[in-house]
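Query structure, 152 tokens:
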């Protein structure tokens, strides 16, 4: 199997993950509730913590479309774990700590974009995120799905 196929499949899934995180945050979630809901649904690490590990600037450089919240985070120097602050704060290089300023930033961007903020339940977050990921995975070649451990 070609490593190019696996790389392209992984990039496609990550891009969809990043887009769905942005959408869910603008609709009424925050990074800690989103990660908690998805980890309770079986993910080893939530997507916001994963983005902090990768680096929000690295993710932004790979995207082709603008994201309201994530782009503002990068502009404000909230690049992730490597600088001690991203979706979460990492005081002293330690574990993730909730940062209420991030929720304020998200709500402000949602308001500027004319989005109606509504609370999203953990079940709704899981259904939306995992549904988006399943949809993104449907078009992957069978060999890429197998290499990534996806059914079908």
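Result returned for the query:
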């Amino acid at each position: 199997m070609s490593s190019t196929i696996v790389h392209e499949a992984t990039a496609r899934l990550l891009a969809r993950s990043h887009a769905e995180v942005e959408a869910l945050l603008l609709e009424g979630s925050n990074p800690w509730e989103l990660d908690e809901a998805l980890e309770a649904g079986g993910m080893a690490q939530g997507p916001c913590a994963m983005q902090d590990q990768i680096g929000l600037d690295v993710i932004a450089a790979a995207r082709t479309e603008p994201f309201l919240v994530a782009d503002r985070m990068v502009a404000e120097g909230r690049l992730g774990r490597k600088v001690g602050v991203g979706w979460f704060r990492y005081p002293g290089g330690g574990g993730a700590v909730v940062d209420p300023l991030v929720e304020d930033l998200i709500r402000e961007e949602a308001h500027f974009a004319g989005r109606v903020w509504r609370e999203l339940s953990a079940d709704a977050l899981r259904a939306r995120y995992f549904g988006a990921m399943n949809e993104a995975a449907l078009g992957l070649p069978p060999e890429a799905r197998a290499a990534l451990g996806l059914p079908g």
